Amino acid sequence: MTKVVISGTGIFQPQFTITNAELVESFNTYVDQHNAQHAAEIEAGKHVALAHSSVEFIEKASGIKQRYVLEKTGILDPSRMYPRFEERTDDQLSLMAEISVDAARKAMAQAGKQGKDIDAVLCSTANMQRAYPAMAVEIQQALGAGGYGFDMNVACSSATFGIEQAVNAVRSGSAKCVLVVNPEITSAHQEWKDRDCHFIFGDVCTAVIVERADTATSSDQWEVLGTKLATQFSNNIRNNFGFMNRSEDSDPNARDKTFRQEGRKVFKEVVPMAAAHIEAHLASLGKEPTQIRRFWLHQANQSMNQFVIRKLIGGEATEDIAPLILDEYANTASAGSVIAFHDHHADLVTGDVGVICSFGAGYSVGSVVVRKLS
Ligand code: COA
Question: How remote is the CA of residue 107 from the centroid of ligand 1, in Å?
Answer without folding.
Answer: 35
